[in-house]
Design brief:
Elements lengths: L3 H8 L6 H6 L3 E6 L11 E5 L2 E7 L5 E5 L13 E2 L4 E2 L6 E2 L5 E3 L17 E2 L1 E4 L2 E5 L33 H10 L2
Antiparallel strand pairs: 1-11, 2-3, 3-4, 4-9, 5-6, 6-7, 7-8, 10-11
Length: 180
């Protein structure tokens, strides 16, 4: 039996925690591709490694995974309007692309460069086998996505699913090997 202190160290995965920092150095499944089925569809709420995020397909079919809170006033990007290659915050209209760059700021004059100074946290994504994967760690430690053989397989040859398991990550792993 682990002491509470050790259990907390192993099970906490939020930003800045020991295990959170460790798990962010791997490509992680974030959502099913089918949950954001088409370009410019409404965003989806995603909670991953203790972070609230919003996922969307932009106009070109790229997947964006951004912080749920707009950097301006903290409004939920889940309620944002997804159109013309970006997710627009409903509060003041700032629009962010899949890289987290502010691409439109309607309250600023056209000659203003202020939008180049504003960013939202965004994570790189890769779609493979009906799953959207993300890398949440430092960019300088990011490895190329490791294809598990599904990048070149047609969608009729795989089926991606997910299961909700109300436990922390370590308990899920322990349960998976207990049956052996």
């Amino acid at each position: 039996m682990l002491a509470q202190e050790d259990n907390d160290l192993l099970c906490r995965v939020g930003p800045g925690t020991l295990m959170g920092n460790f798990l962010r150095r791997y490509w992680t499944p974030a959502l099913l591709s089918a949950e954001i089925p088409e370009n410019d569809c409404p965003p989806l709420r995603v909670r991953l490694l203790g972070e609230d995020l919003s996922a969307f397909h932009d106009s070109e079919g790229n997947v964006g995974l951004v912080a749920n809170a707009c950097p301006h006033r903290g409004a939920s990007m889940f309620f944002g309007r997804n159109d013309e290659s970006g997710l627009r915050c409903v509060f003041h209209g700032r629009k962010f692309n899949v890289e987290g760059t502010c691409v439109d700021m309607p309250s600023e004059p056209a000659e203003s460069n202020f939008k180049s100074k504003v960013h939202i946290t965004a994570y790189p994504t890769h779609e493979s086998g009906g799953i959207v994967w993300t890398y949440m760690g430092p960019r300088e430690t990011m490895t190329a996505f490791r294809d598990f053989g599904s990048d070149s397989v047609s969608p009729d040859q795989y089926r991606a699913t997910k299961i909700y398991s109300p436990c922390n990550w370590i308990r899920g792993h322990e349960g998976n090997i207990d049956t052996a």
